[in-house]
């Protein structure tokens, strides 16, 4: 069975500024997001992760390339009716729950904002019921609706942010580092809520993170981005056991391991982009193994595959 992607990004390029000051934040990025999947997008600060999320949300204009939602092109302007549907079906959760909630509004209003914007309720009673339901779904009490954001902890605030997305009944959630700003002790709480919702509502997630270790156990597939270019994409365990691109290998080498002996022997790989000889032999997005893509020129592809672990490990 060939599964159709719910979201398909092809050759996406986003530039900021014009003329000599033009800067390409995202360069020729392609990936599919399948229904019910969590695809993580991992890379260092400034690599273009949020820009990709915002392009999908249609906040940033796309310079070139295409973004399709269920086969329909959404990178350019769409009709009013489709616009309304997209604003509902694709939601984003933000990094900093301390900054992303309007301090002067009650939770009831914050969670309802999208409903008000698109008149998505028939009666006041229905709106209130939907807000209460969304709060319950993220593990908060319905009576919290009458309180203000400052009364909540970071983890609770992030769950309010999730409720605000959820109330719209989305199909795709772009979660932009939803746990980075939280204490380690409450990160699991938010991850659990996201995982449960994904299961119960068959949501699809584009999960943005800095760190490969954070996404290992929550992702179906992982894409690695470096300076606006996707460099590798594979099933999560495949990426961990058979990384090909030197940047992915560098990121993996930076993850501490719990075993003290192994930790002692861990050697940090430093990635040097000048190692590539791309002037004479440019790279292409290549399928090295089924479903495992890497940005490489032909010579690199041969070498990296030859040096790769023969078979991926069965389990971590
Ligand atoms: N509106 C804008 N105008 C000009 N440049 C921008 C704009 N938004 C982002 N950029 C630049 O584009 C690049 C990618 O930014 P982006 O926010 O997508 O990175 P990121 O991977 O999300 O980083 P972080 O992990 O720090 O959130 C950065 O160099 C950033 O300065
Ligand atoms: Mg960002």
Summary tags:
316 residues, alpha/beta, Rossmann fold, 11 helices, 24% strand, globular, binds adenosine-5'-triphosphate, binds magnesium ion
Tally of individual domains: 1
Structure annotation, total helices: 11
Task: Tell me how many strands there are.
Answer: 12
Listing every helix as H and every strand as E from the N terminus to the C terminus, the arrangement reads EEEHEEHEHHHEHEHEEHHHEEH
The largest sheet has its strands arranged as 6-7-8-3-9-10-12-11
Through-space gap between termini? 28 Å
| Helix residue percentage | 25-40%
> Which fold name fills CATH's third level, the topology?
Rossmann fold
Determine the CATH superfamily. Answer: P-loop containing nucleotide triphosphate hydrolases
Rounded average pLDDT: 92
Describe this structure in words.
The chain is of the alpha/beta class. It has a single domain (5-307), classed as Rossmann fold. It contains eleven helices and twelve strands. The strands form two sheets. Strands 6-7-8-3-9-10-12-11 form an eight-stranded mixed sheet, with helices on both faces. A four-stranded antiparallel sheet has the order 2-1-4-5, with helices on one face. β11 and β12 (292-296) form a beta hairpin. It binds adenosine-5'-triphosphate (ATP) and magnesium ion. Residues 16, 25, 43, 45-51, 210 line the site of adenosine-5'-triphosphate.
